[in-house]
Design goal:
This is Antibiotic biosynthesis monooxygenase. By secondary structure, the protein is an alpha+beta fold. About 25% of the residues lie in helices and about 30% in strands.
């Protein structure tokens, strides 16, 4: 199945806490997404004082995403320990319609199938 929607979450920690948060975020946040999203990716950029984490999950539709995220898919489901780790609590996520991608989509590997431009 081709992903049509990307849901992007961003959060920042103190760099000193980044390794611990990365482990926690994977266990508490990424693993549940692996069970429901078509694919999920976790990115990390370390700075001198803060580290940014970006999670992108891929969905076949807004409806499928809403089954995971609830009636308002832009609403963030903060993890229990987020207040301990995050510098600021994110207020929302970004939802983007995928209009083109390259590669071959394999939900087990998390890569994208070529789709070319999409209408609508």
């Amino acid at each position: 199945m081709r992903p049509a929607i990307a849901r992007i979450w961003r959060g920042r920690t103190r760099t000193a806490d980044a390794d611990a948060y990365a482990r926690y975020l994977y266990d508490a946040g990424i693993k549940p997404l692996e069970e429901t999203a078509l694919a999920v990716e976790l990115f990390r950029e370390d700075g001198p004082e803060e580290t940014e984490f970006v999670t992108i999950s891929y969905w076949e539709s807004i409806e499928a995403m809403a089954r995971f995220a609830g009636k308002n898919p832009r609403r963030i489901h903060h993890l229990a320990r987020d207040p301990e780790f995050l510098v600021a609590m994110p207020e929302g996520v970004q939802i983007l319609r995928i209009v083109a991608s390259a590669g071959r989509f394999d939900a087990d590997r998390g890569t994208a199938e070529p789709t070319g431009p999409r209408a609508g």
